[in-house]
Amino acid sequence: xxxxxxxxxxxxxxxxCLLAATVIxxxxxxxxxxxxxxxxxxxxxxxxxxxxxxxxxxxxxxxSGAHFNPAVTLVAALRGDIRPAEAxxxxxxxxxxxxxxxxxxxxxxxxxxxxxxxxxxxxxxxMLAEGxxxxxxxxxxxxxxxHRPSDMxxxxxxxxxxxxxxxxxxxxxxxxxxxxxxxxxxxxxxxMADVAGFVAGQLAGALLAWIAGxxxxxxxxx
Length: 222
Prior knowledge:
Elements: H1 5-34, H2 38-64, H3 70-78, H4 84-108, H5 124-147, H6 152-166, H7 175-181, H8 192-216
Helix pairs in contact: 1-2, 1-4, 1-7, 2-6, 3-4, 3-8, 4-7, 5-6, 5-8
């Protein structure tokens, strides 16, 4: 049984903020320390993201479900696990939290709070990668909920860790954090012009995971 709606929304906003701050902040620090080696920078970015996901899902999962991701919330609503109006509120607070996290990361490194990202992540291959990454994330969550709920922090952290390295997009897998990363001209950034393609791929991947997960794991489609 989750907490009251106000506490759930606070948990989603706080978790999203800390997640985005970690993704963006670790990317900034990784570039500063890696001496121009993008592989080393990505490794540092990956490890920090995996660590914070494990902590946040473990700490806030019992409060709100620890979605931190509108694609995850969409599937939860389609499954009947959350009311549509609550899902809209979740998505709004997740997006606001991620934007606040981007600003927090910038403030910690004495950078402009809001920036226009210039990193190009365009093209159908990267849209496909985001679809695949989000499918993997949502599918793993559905399987974990059905079979290994106590392992959910590790499941989420590990699927994103893998996604950083097997997808051409480095696995954003989250519309809210995609928007936040468009406001950061850093290692984690994405041009605003590429956001719509990423979000379309993410939502498509989430919907496919909902269908596949509902069939394989025995949850009837709503």
